[in-house]
Design a protein that fits this description.
The protein is α+β, with helices and mostly antiparallel strands and 360 residues long. It is 51% helix and 9% strand. The protein is globular and about 50 Å long.
């Protein structure tokens, strides 16, 4: 293990810190009293699994199953069990597939996979139904018992990058269960092509570091292209000794973004920088095992003044990747899922671009 790794006791304490914020119905909110969304909830369930908090994991997945709506989506925000924002966000729905695949890697529990498969199918069918002509996935859809519902027809680069990983996770589950999903395969191929060749078509959120590294984290961009992409804004977002800025104009580093970049670097085999960044993030650790969301370095102040479950979860997943502590440690590498599907049925006029350029 690298010397910067957490001890087993520290991993356990952070798992307990996440579980302490879990609500009675199983939901894991951003922090005590704030809202829950299914993406961050699933990430927390994955981290709880890494930390061995089995009862909390089971309660979290029961919440996922119970709150899914008929169209395959979840509400964007739940507060104390009540819906605050009813719109359905595609990236949030898709991430359920990543969580189920991670659970399989760690526990090898076929019964769990079979029980969650209908949930995953509804979620990814909902997501694929909102793919745009250029290949990106529409951001969200208003939810209503009536159809059609209004679609927010802009695609987010970070969100679609995460969906790319989720579709591969879904296809891996489909392969495991011998239940082919050709529509997902087609959607994943088109989406991967858009993330490699048509990033300008996505909504411009380039001031956020997530838009910079997520095409790598989600697995669409690899090899020399990935290294060049990270090099292009490394000095803009990475603050040596502190971590990764959330927004390029603000002197504010955040633990979640830092540890997600750790995972992206690990996926590329860049262990040296991954380990160094993970160590940098540890100044956000508190004595109870929780993690402050971020740090404003000119003011020497944690902001906001709260521990967040998604920050602690990102830390535990990054730690697992760096130490190979569980069978799910390679989740963000290219070794645990089916291959990225070939881009077929493109509408952009460059159907053979990936084949000609190569993807190594």
């Amino acid at each position: 293990m690298p010397p910067e790794a957490l001890t087993a006791e520290q991993v356990d304490r952070t798992g307990r810190a996440i579980e302490a914020m879990q609500e009675g119905d199983g939901a894991v909110p951003w922090t005590t009293g704030q809202h829950t969304d299914v993406w961050n909830h699933v990430e927390a369930a994955m981290a709880l699994l890494v930390a061995g908090r089995s009862n909390a994991v089971d309660r979290a997945w029961e919440w996922v199953r119970r709150t899914q709506r008929d169209d395959g989506s979840w509400a964007m925000k739940y507060v104390a069990g009540e819906i605050e924002d009813a719109s359905g966000e595609t990236n949030m729905a898709a991430y359920v597939a990543v969580g189920v695949w991670h659970h399989w890697l760690v526990r090898r529990d076929a019964g769990f996979v079979h029980s969650l498969w209908p949930t995953v199918r509804r979620a990814l069918d909902f997501v694929c139904g909102l793919q745009l002509p250029f290949g990106g996935i529409a951001w969200s859809q208003e939810w209503s018992d009536a159809r059609p519902a209004r679609v927010n027809a802009e695609a987010l680069l970070a969100g679609s990058s995460s969906i790319h990983q989720a579709l591969r996770a879904g296809l891996s589950l489909a392969d495991l269960l011998d239940d082919p999903q050709p529509d997902w395969e087609l959607a994943a191929g088109r989406l991967g092509h858009a993330l490699r060749r048509h990033r300008a078509e996505f909504l411009d959120k380039s001031s956020f570091s997530m838009d910079w590294y997520y095409p790598v984290l989600g697995g669409a961009v690899r090899g020399r292209e990935a290294l060049d992409l990270l090099a292009s804004r490394w000095d803009t977002f990475v603050v040596p000794g502190l971590g990764v800025r959330c927004v390029d104009a603000n002197p504010w580093v955040t633990g979640a973004e830092t540890c997600e970049l750790v995972l992206a670097l690990d996926a590329l085999g860049d262990r040296e920088r991954a380990v160094r960044l993970f160590a940098d993030a540890q100044h956000l650790r508190d004595l109870d095992g929780g993690y402050w969301t971020g740090y404003v370095y000119p003011d020497d102040a944690h902001w906001p003044g709260e521990h967040t479950t998604y920050t602690a979860a990102a830390v535990l997943l990054a730690h697992d990747a760096l130490t190979d502590s569980t069978p799910g440690a390679g989740l963000f590498r290219d070794t645990t899922m089916v291959a990225d599907p070939e881009p077929l049925g493109l509408e952009c006029g460059c159907a053979s671009a990936d084949a000609l350029a190569g993807r190594a």
